[in-house]
Design a protein that fits this description.
By secondary structure, this protein is α+β, with helices and mostly antiparallel strands. It contains nine helices and five strands; from the N terminus they run H-H-H-H-H-H-H-E-E-E-H-E-E-H. The chain has a five-stranded antiparallel β-sheet with strand order 2-1-3-5-4, with helices on one face. Strand 4 and strand 5 form a beta hairpin. The longest helix has 16 residues. The chain is globular.
């Protein structure tokens, strides 16, 4: 598991991965202050990147965005390749259905890392039953929300109040009174707001 400074990852991929919650929306964001890659040679990196380099960076970008290890991401790709339809789209759909991502998209947490931590500490439930597995795949119709005793958590309350940050997606519903969300449908590619060229990832794994 990566335990170094998360802002270095955004600088390495030259894009905001939204790994630090509110910090990513402030003037303290690393991308806003230093657009060049980290390291002593970061400013000197020039030249046209190779096709493999571009494909690799795209894979690393999405893997780091969702907080996955290499083996985990490869398993998702293998499952996506076995499904009917476009492999890249199927891959993104599975990643979006992860419980930690759904909790983040619903605005219960300011980042996927925070969502993952709260899920592991038994603060969330699906359809009224406790689920402490961040990789749990939420299905259409499932209801997701904090457990009754966890609704009073300060970080959950603050995140819900600032839900404008993540912008509720059209494939999700949210009940402010019950403090509970619902997955309406599996999102289409147009409704998945990630700056990823998934075809490059498919090409990388197809070699």
């Amino acid at each position: 598991r990566y335990r170094d400074a998360k802002c270095k990852l955004c600088r390495r991929e030259s894009t905001k991965l939204f790994l630090k919650g509110d910090r990513c929306y402030s003037n303290k964001c690393a991308i806003e202050r230093r657009e060049f890659p980290p390291g002593q040679h970061g400013r000197r990196r020039k030249g046209k990147p190779s096709k493999y380099f571009t494909q690799l960076r795209e894979k690393q970008k999405i893997r780091r965005m969702y907080g996955l290890l290499e083996a985990q991401f490869h398993n998702y790709f293998e499952k996506a390749a076995q499904q009917k339809g476009i492999t890249g789209t199927a891959l993104l759909q599975m990643l979006e259905r992860r419980l930690d991502n759904v909790v983040y998209r619903m605005g219960f947490c300011s980042s996927r890392a925070t969502a993952r931590q709260l899920i592991r500490h038994n603060h969330f439930q699906v359809n009224g039953r406790k689920v402490n597995i961040p990789s749990y795949l939420v299905s259409p119709g499932d209801r997701v929300g904090p457990r009754e005793k966890s609704k009073s958590l300060v970080m959950v309350k603050e995140a819900v109040e600032k839900r404008r940050r993540t912008e509720m997606q059209t494939w999700l519903d949210f009940d402010d009174k019950k403090l509970e969300g619902r997955l309406n449908q599996i999102p289409s590619r147009e409704n998945i707001p990630v700056p990823i060229q998934e075809q490059l990832i498919v090409e990388l794994y197809s070699k």
